[in-house]
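Lecture notes, unit on binding sites. The following record was shown on slide 14. It pairs a sequence with adenosine-5'-triphosphate.
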Amino acid sequence: MAIIEIKNVAKRFGAVTALHNVDMTIADKEFMVLLGASGCGKTTLLRIIAGLETPSEGEIWIGGRRVDHLPPRQRGIAMVFQNYAVFPHLTVFENIAFGLRMQKTPQDQVRRRVTRTAELMHIEQLLERYSGQLSGGQRQRVAVARALAMEPEVILMDEPLSNLDALLRLEMRAELKGVLAEAKSTAIYVTHDQVEAMSLADRIAVVHKGRIVQAAEPIEVYRNPATRFVGSFIGNPPMNFLPARADGGGRWSVAGFSLQGPTAERPLEFAIRPEDLTPAEAGIPAIARVVEPLGPHLLVTTEVEGQTFRAVLESERRVVPGDRLHLAPMPGRARWFDPETETAIA
Ligand code: ATP
């Protein structure tokens, strides 16, 4: 059982606090993605779990054992990094076998495990090639295979697909998901790519300024962002926000459009995803500014009370710049945030 417990972990680099008291438990065999913008602290957290960095405060437990005082080698983890260090002067076989050789694994077992993981990663035909002769995508597979060959209880990955071109990334993403499910390892995967996060994760932990602001299933993070930041960071085109004025009794006025919302005294911020809007008789009054036919749908960038407000509409819809629209939020899809704390109102 490889449950990972991060207990009250803080990390300071001189005057910079990279992590503030992070608490999180990752279940056995769970695929957890740490998602956040550049510099938010996600790599630092991964490196602390790996043992490449010591926490300023707090503890790391893996499988019920405290590991933060142990060297990386003794933590039962394997790692795949962005600049996946594949040794060019070794064959693919020897690259995959590298960790096993270090552990003095018997030769027959090395052969069995290397062959199996190579098959899993679809590189069995490359085993005798020198890694220097491989494409970026193939090298990437070798790096993942090397980690999997260790049959680790925990696999840590830091932007492992970032060096690949878009199509290869897409392919590898789909493969990784299947491969890791089969490997039955607990996985932590760092990325700043929200689509990658949504696609791979059992749960996404959104990291913002050194804090985990939400850890939940992808659809939950998407539908019910815990903070304004999560709502704006996840989703493309991004979530729309508009000020809302309380009309009493849970009625709210958004750009003059009246709708039902939570009961609160103070002004709130109304939020809606662009695909959760439909043109209707009554809705938020918007003037179309830019109309982009994207194939499967139409992206309309509008202006509402001087602010940018986007709607994703059916591709058959005929809208031209200058059109006046009324955009109605689909039932149950509006979200509300406290503008002071920037957190969601239940
Ligand atoms: P990226 O996606 O750009 O790698 P990240 O979310 O992984 O970003 P971290 O690398 O964890 O972010 O960095 C978090 C903060 O800690 C940043 O402000 C960074 O500058 C700082 N930091 C990280 N490592 C060190 C270090 N060794 N010395 C000083 N500051 C550091």
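Take-home: The chain has two domains: 4-233, 240-337.
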